[in-house]
Structures are given as C-alpha cells and as structure tokens.
Design goal:
It is built from three helices and four strands; from the N terminus they run βαββααβ. The chain is α+β, with helices and mostly antiparallel strands. The chain has a single domain, classed as Alpha-Beta Plaits, CATH 3.30.70. Strands 2-3-1-4 form a four-stranded antiparallel sheet. Helix 1 runs antiparallel to helix 3. It is flat, with a radius of gyration of 13 Å. The model has no long low-confidence stretch (mean pLDDT 97).
Length: 97
Amino acid sequence: MPAYIIVDVQINDAKAYDDYKKLTPASVAAYNGKFIVRGGETETLEGDWDPERIVMLEFPSVEKAKEWWNSNEYLPAKEIRQRSSNTKMIVVEGYTG
C-alpha cells in the first residue's frame, strides 16, 4: 500500500535550506520515493492553517518511507533541515479503494 510523508516547513535559514533541497532528491529516489508536492503555492480553504512550505513524498509503503527517513543516505540532509527549519512531519498510509 502506498504511503505519504507530509511535511509542513517553516524555514529559518534559507541558504542552508537550499543545501537541503539539493541533497534530498537522491536519497528519496534510493528508497523508491518521489515528490508529489515540493513547495508549491498554497491556499487555506478552512481553518487557520497558514503553512510556509508544504512537501509531500510518496513511497511504496510506510516501511519504505520510514527506512528512508532513518537512512544514512538521508542523514546529512536531515541534519541540515533540522538546523535550518522548524518542521512538522507525518507518514500516512495511502488509500487504495
């Protein structure tokens, strides 16, 4: 079953975060993941949620998504992200109907 990582990012250091954006795609691909949303324009339809940057990744399974998040390939990028932004991140199973 597909799984999605959904991320709400508030960037505190844009220069460092640019380095993160360059490092991340190869690690995602190594775990058969892909970007679905990567910082596109947002519009709040309900509530008071006003995200700065939304990212959504798709992986073949929750297990694969967690493998990526815990991987050595992602670690250098993750450390940059954690230093340069405040992040809320979840993993959710996809709907297969």
